[in-house]
Amino acid sequence: MHILITGGAGFIGSHTGRALLAKGHRVRVLDSMKPPVHKDGKPFNMPEGAELVLGDVTNKEDMTRALDGIDAVYHLAAYQDYLPDFSTFFTVNAAGTALLYEIIVEKNLPIQKVVVASSQAAYGEGKYRSQAGEIFYPDIRSVATLEGGAFEIMGPDGLVAESLVTDEAVIKPQNQYAMSKYTQEMIALNLGKRYDIPSVAMRYSIVQGPGQSLYNAYSGACRVFCLSLHFDHRPPVYEDGLQKRDYVNVGDVVAANVLVLEKEAANYEMFNVGGGKAYTVLDFARLAAQVYEKDLEPELTGAFRFGDTRHIVSDITKLKALGWAPQHTPEKSVRDYKAWLEDMDNVDDVLAYAQERMKSLNVVRAVKK
Ligand SMILES: NC(=O)c1ccc[n+]([C@@H]2O[C@H](COP(=O)([O-])OP(=O)(O)OC[C@H]3O[C@@H](n4cnc5c(N)ncnc54)[C@H](O)[C@@H]3O)[C@@H](O)[C@H]2O)c1
């Protein structure tokens, strides 16, 4: 197949591109190569052997050029950040996806599959059970509560509720990124179905592994903990560090991407792509320190991150039924990321840059109790 990967010079796209090339497919990448991922516009991560179309997913000419002669599309390019330029999220993530379908329909392109990258973020706080046994999907945690140091979600009965693994059934996006990703999904699945363009939405959990931008404020714990440990700092942890996450290795995400390309049963479906196991952030920080063989305990910063969810762990039953299961551990993600970092020349300025950026975005806020 001749496959287009938008955002193919990014983290997940480049790994997916390499896997597709290894399977004998032809790969074309459409990427804008812009900062922050590509600092100073320098290409980073292009899969060797792929063709590059330098362009933007919001530009009709670029997209039309990129789609010429293509059989399948991975639509991975996205705007991901904490910035309050809300409209950009919808311009890139939602309108960019609508443009993709517009061109396919307008030019009657014989596209056999479109895979779009959605996100676990679409669940917001995810699924909970109150102590009275009621299932509910919590609203946004208030800044006042977080500033008061109360992090857990309360049920309608006013008691601390239990976080459950979240399946695909109920969506509750609560920030600009999540809403734009859910909109992207709806565009792909509904227009796909209406116009017979087999489409699949992948809701990735936190993806980890080498090649993840050092400069993207959105890329999370693996980058921050590895960078801290690299410079002999304690890994900084927000809230009380007991937040649960299901980190997924990029190799498993690539396997999921390849699987849904090949399986007809995946068409017009959305799938969680998670690690299958819950870790607290503290567990993960300790695991990273072990990999680094450094006696550096996580540091509770006395702060919280504006917009973070408390616990979120995806139920991966649906994708497993299609023949996929995670094969790699978060320990492998850290080991591989560490090796990748150690191979790099310009690591020095990154941590300071990242901290400065988080501060300037007012993302990290103090607990005042
Ligand atoms: N990494 C994660 O943990 C994670 C989790 C859930 C969902 N996702 C989704 O997976 C996809 C890939 O994520 P990633 O981590 O590889 O991101 P990334 O930032 O490493 O890669 C994205 C690529 O898209 C390109 N790009 C951005 N805007 C563009 C535009 N307007 N036109 C053309 N190219 C553009 C960037 O230059 C970059 O190379 C995204 O859609 C993201 O929302 C990622």
Total domain units? 1
The order of strands across the largest sheet is: 3-2-1-4-5-9-14
How does the helix and strand content classify structurally?
A: alpha/beta
Shape, per Cα inertia axes? globular
Which descriptors would you attach to this protein?
single chain, 369 residues, Rossmann fold, three-stranded antiparallel beta sheet, 11 helices, globular, binds nicotinamide-adenine-dinucleotide
Q: Brief overview, please?
A:
With 369 residues, the chain is of the alpha/beta class.
Descriptive overview:
With 369 residues, the protein is an alpha/beta fold. It has one domain (2-366): Rossmann fold, CATH 3.40.50.720. It has eleven helices and 18 strands. The strands form six sheets. The protein has a seven-stranded parallel sheet, sandwiched between helices. It has a three-stranded antiparallel sheet with strand order 7-6-8, with no helix packed on it. A two-stranded parallel ribbon has the order 10-13. The radius of gyration is 20 Å and the shape is globular. The structure holds nicotinamide-adenine-dinucleotide (NAD). Nicotinamide-adenine-dinucleotide (NAD) is lined by residues 6-7, 9-13, 30-34, 37-38, 56-58, 76-80, 92, 117, 119, 204, 206-207, 213, 216.
